[in-house]
Amino acid sequence: MNNNLYEHGTLAMLMAGKLSGTITLAELLKHGEHGIGTLDGLDGEVIILDNEVYQADETGTVNRITDMDATLPFASVHHAMNETTLTLPKADFNILNDTIVKEHNFKNVFVATRFHGVFEAVKVRVAPKQTRPYPGLLEIASNQPIFEKQNVSGTVIGYFAPELFGTVTAGGWHLHFLSDDRQFGGHLLDFVGTNLTGTYQIFDSLEQHFPVSDPEFRAYDIDLASLQADIQAAEGH
Length: 237
Description:
By secondary structure, this protein is of the alpha+beta class. It has a single domain, classed as CATH 3.30.1330.80. The chain is 18% helix and 45% strand.
């Protein structure tokens, strides 16, 4: 088993409004038992933990997804291996972006992280399901439901990517949250936690999978001039 991050689709595709599912969940899970993504039509935020798949939808509801024929336009997954223990006496995005990246020299590598504990505050957003003709991700991101919760026990899972790859995936941290009671989750916008414990895993390689059978993917044009700024605005932190 290779120590690699498997990614289907690209963030640039989502920015361009190519939101149709192009890989089945059954196929995706062959490449990892942990990960994040979104469903067909940008339908919510997907969290994959130990081969169990959950979707936080636009109403704030968390659903367990058991339909292996469900499709995703974009997802990142990995097999857990060669993990290093991560202890966070205090954590928020400032600490992750500054202290953690510098201490562990992450800036030029792909990294997975999972950490768990009681969070004093969690703020998430959830992509609402879209119908054709699909808008671009930036337009969707400006009108996404936001949910907040205090004193919630749960898990943060996601990835760090070098800025160099910021059009393939989100440069920096792209993290999702799922509560232990499976009642609250989404794309992590902000959080504060203390005494959190978990792991990180540095990958040897990135396996980028393209939906080459999808005619929309084959034909779409990218506005490179504005893409990076639009991605930063859409990511929301």
